Amino acid sequence: MKNESTEHYDVVVIGAGVSGMYALHHLREMGLSVRVYDGASDIGGTWWYNRYPGARVDGPGSPFYCYTFSEELMKEWEWAETQSDQSAVLAYLEHVADRFDFRRDIQFETWVEDARYDEATQRWTVETHTGARASAQFLICAVGALSTANKPDIPGIQDFAGECYHTGQWPHEPISFEGKRVAVLGTGSSGIQSIPEIAREAAHVTVLQRTPQYAFPAGNRPITAEEMAHARENWDVLREKMNGNVAGFPCDNQERSALDDTPEQREALYERLWQRGGFNFFLELYSDIATSEEANLSLADFVRAKIREIVHDPETARKLLPDYFVITKRPILENGYFDAYNRDNVSLIDLREDPIERFNTTSVVTRSGEHPIDMLVLATGYDAISGSMLRLNPKGRGGKSLKERWTDRFHNYLGITVSDFPNLFMIHGPGSPGVFYNMPLGAERQMDWIGQCMRHLSDQSLGSIEPTVESEDAWANEVSALANITLFPRTDSWWTGANIPGKPRYFSVYLGGSIYYQRINDVKDKGYAGFTFEPKN
Ligand code: NA7
After folding, report:
1. pLDDT, tens digit, 9 for 90 and up, residues 21-77
2. By CB count within 10 A, which of 197, 367, 387, 431 is most buried?
3. What Cα–Cα distance (Å) separates residue 133 from each residue in 2, 7, 122, 411?
4. Which pLDDT score is estimated for 61?
5. Cα angle vertex 481, ends 478, 487, to 5°?
6. How many other C-beta atoms can be found within 10 angstroms of the C-beta atom of residue 91?
7. How confident is the model at residue 386 (pLDDT cuts 50, 70, 90)?
8. Poorest-pLDDT segment among 2-6, 259-263, 267-271, 351-355
9. Distance from the alpha carbon of residue 32 to the mean position of ligand 1, in angstroms
10. Does the Cβ of 328 fall within 6 Å of ligand 1?
11. Whose CA is nearest to atom 27 of ligand 1?
12. What are phi and psi of 5, to 5 degrees?
């Protein structure tokens, strides 16, 4: 029996991950009433779901993958490792939720099945899977850029009778690999992190690889007491640096071209960064690795030589050599991935030479033959960036759905708003820096802008805000123009939507993080140029 009651709030937030948690905090500070919904049974979003073996921060790590809104919070938290594992990130987020008493405004295990704008009342109504309804002037979609699992439609996959897990929906109970023949499909970050861990226990691991990847040493190590003390003592300076950095981390933006150096000097830099490891590899590289083919090739050759050096069997090494522009797929940090191929219990199938024909109840069949397996790990990634918004599929003016609006591309303005969807805001949506930026910091900065926008509406007694179609078109051109300076659009990746059959294919991320925040603040300072408002009904 469906529950017919409707609760009323100023804001409904969908998602209690990193972005939704900050949204709740900020909106509370503004004195607004908020209800947050999440399908999971606790906070954390992506960090709640991704419990696969080896799951770690594979971006620039601790202590700067964190919220910056509270100096006390930063100073009281102790990070143990530079690349925190999933449980350490979740422990941090749980601490934040406890400290700020978030859970009292979050309804867990609740899927929002419908979100609909009512033009007469200028409010959104959401309906959950229990039939409960809530209405609010504003809808904030903090639904995650990497949350909607991509499960490939391969003949017979439904018939496979062994254990089958997607890395992004990993079970909470311990999974044993002992004595099992495990196939891992996918060699993105999740596959590359989990393969060496699974190989330690399993009888055999068969890696099913569609695209070989460049992966760089994670260089994970304990954070020293001195490093934590330095971060705490210099927090103001570091925070300012984060805000000015292209990726939101306390590093200097690089200005030197790879072509200014001799091949020997380049090699020396790459070797130094390789030996140290960590995501700072990319933040401390030359400025033109992602824009100049020649610069890019110099790094690609360096990594290919490293793969040949690490992997003993020349035939396996050959299959592992990537052939696209380096870093034009999401750069990956590895902990013993290439070395795992030196084990007797790990074998590699290159699906480009030996494609999957089907799954059976107990095996995967490739062109070359049948491979019996007990377990299938789907490390096949996500319908990224836009997928979770489309899964929510809100209905805007005239009942028009987002799926109808986003057929050819993900129309939006500033990566935050969509025409015909008044008073709806996205965090880390398409058209924003999202996955190219320090995600907790990016969520804070987008949410701060959204909060100011809400305040503007209230101060001016306005009932709604939405962008014009012209401003969306101009924004799309700006996003594309920035992307087209780089090599990113020239590679098939989840950044370009190429991993999902039928998805619009283009690079939908706004590059140049700190420039983006200047841009959105300029729009605000110009009285929200590119938006239209309606008076309060
Ligand atoms: P990714 O990076 O999207 O990796 C998914 C992998 O799965 C990748 O190797 C894909 O090959 C492969 N894949 C996807 N679909 C198929 C099918 N149908 N057949 C064979 N292989 C397939 O996801 P991750 O979870 O590893 O990482 C996501 C992000 O999380 C990561 O970038 C970090 O930001 C954190 P492809 O390369 O598309 O040929």
Report:
1. 999 999 999 999 999 999 999 999 999 999 999 999 987 878 999 999 999 999 999
2. 431
3. 10, 6, 16, 28
4. 77
5. 140
6. 15
7. very high
8. 2-6
9. 39
10. no
11. 189
12. -75, 150
Q: Is the pLDDT score of 1 beyond 50? A: no
pTM greater than 0.85: yes
CB 415 within 8 A of CB 478: no
Q: How far apart are CA 238 and CA 438, in angstroms?
A: 14
Torsion sign, CA atoms 264, 266, 268, 271: negative
Residue 393 has φ and ψ, to the nearest 5°, of: 50, 60
Residue matched to tokens 């990070």: 79
- pLDDT confidence of residue 4: 64
Atom 25, ligand 1: residue with shortest CA distance:
381
Q: Are 452 and 520 in contact (CB under 8 A)?
A: no
Atom of ligand 1 nearest to the CA of 186: 7
Domains and CATH numbers, the chain: 6-148+383-535 (3.50.50.60), 181-378 (no CATH)
> Of the candidates 33, 35, 22, which has an alpha carbon nearest to the alpha carbon of residue 67?
22
Q: How many helices (H) does the chain have, and how many strands (E)?
A: 17, 19
**Ligand 1 touching residue 184 (CB < 6 A):** no
Angle at which helices 235-244 and 513-525 pack, to 10 degrees?
80
H or E element at residue 533: strand 531-535
- Single out the residue of 3, 12, 36 nearest to residue 135, CA to CA: 12
Q: Determine if ligand 1 sits within 6 Å of the CB of residue 290.
A: no
